[in-house]
Design goal:
single chain; 271 residues; 24% helix
């Protein structure tokens, strides 16, 4: 499976312009052989809203024109894409990522862990951790702050995720998320991990790029520039993420990452 991550700079509160650029990027990635294209958190709408009214005015419905044009692009190019946006559904707002494929909308993930920052001050929490079983593999989606907690990635991995995609908006001071935490999530769960961050400035917040694609052993397979828009790709053998027993030397150096778990010792985590 060929994965492409697009490090993007959205225009603040301009869903029409952003979705047009995302559509073009998806078509270009598909022409280069991508099976899955991942864009950052809130790529369609922007993130650094200063009031609930401002966030609502910029938000979009999943069935609306700006989001629907991405669905149509995926259907036409026979490619999958994950794209973040401020989602409006009825009276509620969510920080969401839509997952599209050649047959249309596969599903929507809504951010489950919310910092006191930007859009997340004005949205409801999502209440589900989803693994999407697709023609290209079993793929989990988290958004930004979700990844600061080990439990969501572990739950997705226990549910069979071979790849976790993280649309994110890392601002300055969050560099260690890219430098350490993403590789840790990949290595501790023996999965592939892809982080799509944004760049540029938005309402006095500067974003740091550092998008990455990481292998199950923590190896960085591709890394983006720190300061500008960029596109990175890697070919992933997702079957290798299904094997949780790591054998360095048979019978002498073996690590059973899931078989040696002892859930009875971890009850405080869920309590």
């Amino acid at each position: 499976m060929r994965l492409t991550v697009v490090q993007f700079r959205p225009d603040f509160a301009d869903a029409g312009a952003n979705s047009a650029r995302i559509e073009q990027g998806i078509l270009e990635a598909a022409a280069q052989g991508a099976d899955l294209v991942v864009y950052p958190e809130a790529a369609i709408t922007g993130y650094c809203f200063q009031s609930a009214d401002e966030a609502r005015a910029a938000s979009v419905e999943t069935s609306s024109g700006p989001v629907d044009r991405i669905r149509k692009a995926c259907e036409g190019a026979k490619v999958h894409a994950i794209v973040g946006y401020a989602e409006r559904t009825g009276d509620a707002l969510f920080n969401s990522a839509a997952f599209f494929g050649p047959r249309g909308l596969i599903g929507v993930y809504r951010k489950t862990h919310l910092p006191c920052l930007g859009l997340d001050r004005f949205v409801k929490r999502g209440d589900a951790l989803k693994v999407f079983d697709t023609a290209i593999g079993k793929i989990g989606v988290l958004i930004c702050f979700d990844n600061r907690f080990p439990e969501p990635a572990r739950v997705l991995s226990l549910r069979g995720a071979e790849l976790i995609c993280l649309p994110t908006n890392w601002p300055e001071s969050a560099e260690r998320n890219s430098d350490f935490i993403c590789a840790t999530r990949a290595m501790e769960n023996h999965i592939f991990f892809a982080a799509a961050n944004r760049v540029g400035e938005e309402n006095e917040f500067q974003f740091v790029g550092r998008s990455k694609i990481i292998g199950p052993d923590g190896t960085v397979l591709a890394a983006a520039d720190h300061t500008k828009e960029d596109v990175i790709s890697a070919d992933l053998d997702l079957a290798s993420a299904r094997e949780k027993r790591v054998v360095q030397k048979a019978g002498e150096y073996e690590l059973d990452l899931f078989g040696e778990r002892r859930p009875a010792l971890y009850r405080e985590i869920s309590d």
